[in-house]
Amino acid sequence: MSGYLDGMAVILALNVILAYAVFLPVATGQLNLGGAAFQAVGAYAAAYISTQYGAPLPVILAVSASVSGLIAFVLALSILRTKGVYLVLATFAFAQFVSGVIINVDALGGALGMTVPEHVGGGPIIVIAGVVLVGVMLLMQTRFGLAMRATHDDDTVAELMGIGVRRTRVAAFTLGGVLAGIAGGLYAFYFNFVEVQTFDSLSSIYLLLFVLLGGTQTVWGPLIGAAFFTIVPELFRYVVANMGGASAGQLDTSWRFIILGIITVVMMVARPEGVVTRTGLGRLLGNRRAAPREA
Amino acid sequence: MILVLQQVINGVMLGAVYVTVALAFNLTIGILNFLNFTIPPLFMLTAMVAWASAQYGLPFGLSSPLNWAAALGDGIAVAIAASLVVERMTFRYMKARYGDATEHAIPLVSSLGFLLIIENLVRMAYGTEPHRFTTPFTNMNLRFGGLIVSIPQLFSLVLALAIVFGLSRLLKYTRIGRALRSIAENPDASLLMGVDVGRIVPVVFVLSGLLCGVAGAIFAINYGQVYAGMGNEVGNKAIAGMVLGGLGSIWGAIVGGVIVGVVETLSIHLFGGDTVQAIVWGLLLVALIVRPQGIFGHHAIGKGKL
To answer: What ipTM was reported for this prediction?
Structure first.
């Protein structure tokens, strides 16, 4: 495999993990506009531990996942009293706050970023992404997964049926934090450099969009979304570069976002539930039971 | 002491911009329960279009470079037009199909799409570097003892307050205002009572586009500089101000916007420029946890499914 393809596969794997990190809260009906901030927490935790203490990689990864998971837990406990738009605002505020803090802490390199001494190759990252994918799929099959789905579809009814809605939401949010922390740690080890500007509000928006566009009704949605928005822009870049644009750099990233924006607007008009839906998937697999019953 | 006082004055002046943008946010969220993320880019669009018209004139060679006032008018007109386009594409198509929890976020999500589109179109067209926008008022100051108050800033503060006053009168006493308030209360019931919801909703977007435009114009006049990232910077602070003051409350937007402005200038003065982000957003996060409805917010707003 060439270096380029290798790099692409790693970015795809990281995006898949992140997509599931955002998916878990969304699957219980909470929009998370701070995905990149949890990733930042994980990345900086990994970077700090490996420069200061130098533990074995799996240990560092576990610690950075727990740090970001713990922060997600505390945040979820305190802000999940609020709902809807307040939650969106709180995750947004949290993301801004995290990058604001990191810039001011000298031990974390401030605005200059941090070099990470240890390195992880592409192989393990792809394996971990696979494990996350399978893990989330299994999770959605469990009673807890069902509770998440019920909470998403109608929290009042779910509450009446004896599901601890708040508990389910906090747990899903925390798990999302853990996954984002893992993605952050892996990011730090793969690129050997972390910089707070990478994890800005734009990348949080980007993450949320590709999960929502993929579809949040089934576990396949985030995978499709992440794959589409990782691979297609690269193909596009290839085309632009071959057309011979001299100023490909800025132009290319701008175009990428414009196209994502257009796709978002069109999708929200035409198919707001995302590409992959429960009924669509059922029809595709010829599964009669998945088709909606006409009332 | 005089230095701190000066910072407070600067903060209040900066707050005037935040207040105007926060009002735009508040209108859409208070009436339509829609957190409109296109407001920061519209604010930026106004200023950038104004700069471009002052620099190059209208597109397709329709005119020679405009003078500053016409250029600002042009910018505001573009912002209002863009706001109407956003209304067409986001709010109009919002239909409840399944009634689940994230579905009501559809307009929010497509407004994020518009944010990406507008922001990046501007970046591509005009670049990311700051541009100068000169007006005759640059460097006109009043002095009180040791304190400096810039005249355009004072003017914008008065303008912002006048707009807020006008808006609250509009909402309270006019027919349109009553229709808007009834939609805020219950869209279905107001439709049954003969309010033409499809006609009235665009009014909200015209007003919020106008507010963004005015804020962009104020910013361009006061700071003499416009850049593609200003929507992100100022717009996000305006969100902070809106939440602090209380979602959906007009007077809350004023108080919140001014608080954020003052906190910003004071923390730059006391702790340095890098700390602003952490302090403003930390404050907001605490506010959201302790008192999510803000200072003046009505407890019902934003409580429903988004």
So the answer is: 0.82
